[in-house]
Each structure stands twice: as structure tokens, then as C-alpha cells.
């Protein structure tokens, strides 16, 4: 599969590339072409499971999976976590309705045009570079946090709350993909993007955000 080199994420009307990944929650491999010509697909391209915000986005996608299937839409969550680490996580935190795949090399993210932010000392060129100061100035205001916090502190608090211990696999993913931006793409039965939500627009104001259940379900109703 060739990597996507054009500017920015895939947009509505773009044909999604085929990607083939190792399945986490079942045996074998999963490919986008498995669905092409068959059913619409919501694909979520998330950071690794080391990211507590993405763990919450993944859980939210799992919670609407059954409702999506009732409308004829399949869903797939892709994580930047090595396969055995990911299988261990879902073994202890089962999400029966979730189909997930492992992509530690982030091939799918590149194919869909999602940038991997480079952290710099003082230069920001969104969405490709961001200074450490700019990143730390962001404030996470979640019900689970005692007060608004910068992303690093918020991650530590949420990891402790979740009982998630960073191991060597996670550290390798963080070293190369801590700035990986995430996105969700809704493909029609021909594999053409009809809707998307990514962290790319609005100069970083969408960072760590996610679409609402209502927005996702409304988009799904338009492709079936």
C-alpha cells in the first residue's frame, strides 16, 4: 500500500486506501477491502492505548457499535499499540462489541493523511509542529479531573485512575508517535469517505476532542 503524501487528512469524496492490519479482538487480519462493496464502515484511527484520552474515545466507539450495526454500519478501532500488548489490555477490559486492530507502525494514519506532530522548543506550524510551551498551555477540563490540567499532567492523573501502567511497548510508541493526531472516518459501502472528525482543523482547538454520539449516528444514517 502506498503512503498518502498530499496535504491533510482524507476528505469527504476521497476514496479510502486499503489497509491490512492484525486483528486484536479476533484471529486473523482485517482489511478495509473486506467491507468495500459490502457495508459502510466507521474506522477510528487512534493513538496507542497509552493515551488515556484515546482509551476513552475507543470506549465511546464501542458503546455505539451495536446501534451502528442495527443501521447496517460496521465499525473498526485501530490502535498504535503492539498486538500482544493490545490483546492483553482488551482481555482485562473487554469490550464485546468492539472490533479492533493493531497498527504500531501507524501505516493507517499516514494512509489517511493524519499528521504526527513534532514537538519543538519554540516553533509551532500546526498541524505538523508544536512547541512544548504551546502544548503545555492547553487545558484539559474533564469531569474525571479535579481541575483543568495540561495534557501531560492530565494523562498522569487519568492513567493512575485507570490503573494503566506504562510499559516498554508503550514507551516505544510514545517515543515515535506521541504527537500522532487521531481521526474517525465514515466510509460508504464503496469505501468513499462521507464524513470525518479529526484533531487537525481549527489550529489545535480540537485536540483531545471527539464527536458526540448524536453526530456520529446522524452521519451514519446518511450513508445507509
UniProtKB/TrEMBL annotation:
GO terms for molecular function: antioxidant activity; oxidoreductase activity. It comes from the Bacteria. SUPFAM superfamilies: Thioredoxin-like. Residues 10-224 form the Thioredoxin domain. InterPro entries: AhpC/TSA, Thioredoxin-like_sf, Thioredoxin_domain. This is AhpC/TSA family protein.
Amino acid at each position: 500500500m502506498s503512503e498518502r503524501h498530499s496535504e491533510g487528512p482524507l476528505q469527504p469524496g476521497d476514496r479510502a486506501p486499503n489497509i491490512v492490519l492484525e486483528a486484536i479482538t479476533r484471529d486473523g487480519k482485517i482489511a478495509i477491502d473486506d467491507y468495500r462493496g459490502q457495508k459502510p464502515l466507521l474506522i477510528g484511527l487512534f493513538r496507542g492505548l497509552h493515551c488515556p484520552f484515546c482509551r476513552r474515545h475507543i470506549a465511546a466507539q464501542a458503546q455505539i457499535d451495536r446501534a451502528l450495526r442495527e443501521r447496517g454500519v460496521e465499525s473498526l478501532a485501530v490502535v498504535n499499540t503492539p498486538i500482544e500488548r493490545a490483546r492483553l489490555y482488551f482481555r482485562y477490559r473487554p469490550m464485546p462489541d468492539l472490533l479492533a486492530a493493531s497498527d504500531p507502525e501507524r501505516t493507517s494514519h499516514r494512509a489517511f493523511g493524519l499528521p504526527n506532530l513534532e514537538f519543538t522548543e519554540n516553533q509551532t506550524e500546526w498541524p505538523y509542529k508544536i512547541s512544548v510551551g504551546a502544548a503545555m498551555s492547553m487545558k484539559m477540563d474533564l469531569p474525571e479531573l479535579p481541575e483543568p490540567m495540561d495534557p501531560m499532567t492530565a494523562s498522569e492523573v487519568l492513567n493512575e485512575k485507570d490503573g494503566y501502567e506504562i510499559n516498554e511497548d508503550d514507551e516505544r510508541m510514545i517515543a515515535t508517535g506521541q504527537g500522532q493526531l487521531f481521526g474517525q472516518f465514515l466510509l460508504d459501502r464503496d469505501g468513499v469517505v462521507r464524513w470525518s472528525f479529526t484533531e487537525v482543523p481549527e489550529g489545535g482547538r480540537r485536540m483531545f476532542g471527539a464527536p458526540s454520539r448524536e453526530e456520529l449516528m446522524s452521519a451514519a444514517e446518511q450513508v445507509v
